Amino acid sequence: MRYRSLLTVLASLPLLSSPELRAQRPTLSAAVRSYVAVDSPIVALTHVRVIDGTGAPARDDQTLIIRDGRIAALGAARSVAVPSGAQVVDLTGKTVIPGLVMVHEHLFYPTGPGVYGNVAESFTRLYLAGGVTSMRTGGNMNGFGEIGIKRAIDAGKKPGPWIDATAPYLEGPGLGLDQVHELTGPDDARRMVNFWADAGATSFKAYMHITRAELGAAIVEAHKRGLKVTGHLCSVTYREAAALGIDDLDHGFFVSTDFVADKKPDECPGQGAGMTALGAADPAGDVLRSLIADLVRRHVALTSTPTVFETFVPGRPLPPGLDVLEPQLRAQFEARHAATAANTTSIFSSLFAKELAMELAFARAGGLLLVGTDPTGGGGVIAGYSNQRALELLVEGGFTPLEAIRIGTLNGATFLGRANRAGSIVVGKDADLVVIAGDPSTRIGDVRNVQIVFKQGIGYDPAKLIESVKGKVGLF
Ligand SMILES: [Zn+2]
After folding, report:
1. Are the C-beta atoms of 305 and 373 separated by less than 8 Å?
2. What is the pLDDT of residues 41-59, one digit of tens each?
3. Global pTM?
4. Which helix (DSSP H) or strand (DSSP E) does residue 105 occupy?
5. How far is the CA of 158 from the centre of ligand 1 (A)?
6. Domain assignments of the chain as residue spans, ordered by start
7. Ramachandran sector of residue 105 (left: φ over 0; alpha: ψ -120 to 50; beta: rest)
8. Domain 2-98+424-467: CATH class, spelled out
9. Contact criterion met (CB below 8 Å) for 263 and 257
10. Is the pLDDT of residue 107 over 80?
11. CB-neighbour burial class of residue 67 (10 A; exposed 0-12, middle 13-18, buried 19+)
């Protein structure tokens, strides 16, 4: 009873119906409303199992009250009163987890040799359908398009998650992709950061051929504006980047060149060389332990992207969600998957499990491990579906299901500075929730059974979102 009165007090806090909050929940366009399954000012999710995203054990038979887009009350079903006028959704046998917060997402897809097609319209729907309510893009090939769709979603014109939109890549010469600008030096890096921050980008991605001077300049400039820098590095080692103040390193240790014996400063020895050296490294040895200690000491986060690497591992199942692809893109990926299966000498056969173990060691040493899917590589990593698969792969790597869910929710929100609003199921936070049939705390694979995705208290129908893009991803 004491609990209930506390909840009543919390539910009546003026914050929960402030003009500020109303401003944050835009009027939805007819197009967005066509995907909505639940939209009432007060919603009661009753008899539901709650996994709150903090890593705490699941709690059975809970009632969760959503009011004006926020979580207004939460507790045992017998102790939380359902307010009059609430739309009641009985979730017996189902689970809610926080909306996923994933940090290496993309709004482009490898559509042809050396070309990344803009799939922002379809992928934003698929991310939401898969349970992603907040995400950072980990590099931008769409120029202003990425910032544009973020704004359209925020304004209620299009369905999709909240997006931390990256600027176009900070990359030096060497990649050979026409879509990517080649930095000419530190001044150019500073110019890029300020230009794109002015344009609305809220995050930066350093890439394989950046120099230490350019990376350092970009970090200083981004930090002046309160923005973070992540990196898929090669020319700069993890240890060098950490010393320069980078906030996050992408792809776990897969793209670290710290293990390459004859590494030359500011030169990328090639991703293959880095992986060969990593494959020869002792995962329990001093080199890795010392590197991990350095990253933890400097508060550098590490982003695991197991889904993109899984597509390179021989003998793995076809990834989920391929039927959303435009048929030619689907055939293209399936041919590559068959070729991977036939490759008897792939380094990924042994490196994949080793890498997952290194990420586990990083987290166990106190590092902030994040997760994302990276739908690039050779294709086959499908927004939404791959976010669920990423959680399964974290469990394969040794995390418990509750830890994997925390990495994919609260850890991401913490890194993005959104933990006050998202990442866990707590009274006062946004009602960003994924309703799942089953119990992912015991069977992580149940995360694939998404029934409703709430974003700011509005419940979206994943089947409708998926149907709208089926067979068409690659075209828009
Ligand atoms: Zn990426």
Report:
1. yes
2. 999 999 999 999 999 999 9
3. 0.95
4. strand 100-105
5. 24
6. 2-98+424-467, 100-416
7. beta
8. mainly beta
9. yes
10. yes
11. buried
Nearest Cα to 309, choosing from 242, 356, 360? 356
- Helix axes 385-396 and 348-364, enclosed angle (nearest 10): 80
Number of other CB atoms surrounding residue 279 within 10 Å? 14
In 3-state terms, the chain is what percent helix, strand and coil (to 5)?
40, 20, 40
CA of 355 to the centre of ligand 1 (A): 17
**Residue at 121: amino acid letter:** E
Neighbours of 290 (CB within 10 A): 12
Burial class (CB in 10 A: 0-12, 13-18, 19+), 226: exposed
Q: In 69-206, which residue ranges form alpha helices assigned H by DSSP? A: 120-129, 144-154, 186-199
Length of the chain: 476
CATH superfamily label, 100-416: Metal-dependent hydrolases (3.20.20.140)
CA distance 271 to 348: 13
Nearest CA to 396 out of 364, 361, 356, 366 is that of 356
**Cα separation values, 286 from 248, 276, 283, 290, 291, Å:** 22, 18, 9, 6, 8
How remote is the CA of residue 367 from the centroid of ligand 1, in Å? 21
Q: What would the pLDDT profile of 113-151 be if each residue is shown by its tens digit?
A: 989 999 999 999 999 999 999 999 999 999 999 999 999
Cα 103 to ligand 1 centroid, rounded to whole Å: 10
d(CA 310, CA 287): 25
397 C-alpha to ligand 1 centroid (Å): 21
